Write the structure tokens for this entry.
Amino acid sequence: MEILDEKSNRMSRVIVGVFEANLLAILESLNELVHLEFLTDAEITANS
């Protein structure tokens, strides 16, 4: 039974690791989008 618990813990850590990596990638993408949006707005304001 302890072997199963160890495998479960290992799998849980892998899943959490993948989730964190995905979350960081999503946040990074959002951050880039916000910056692009901000730059676009700033350029429009500067050009008008």
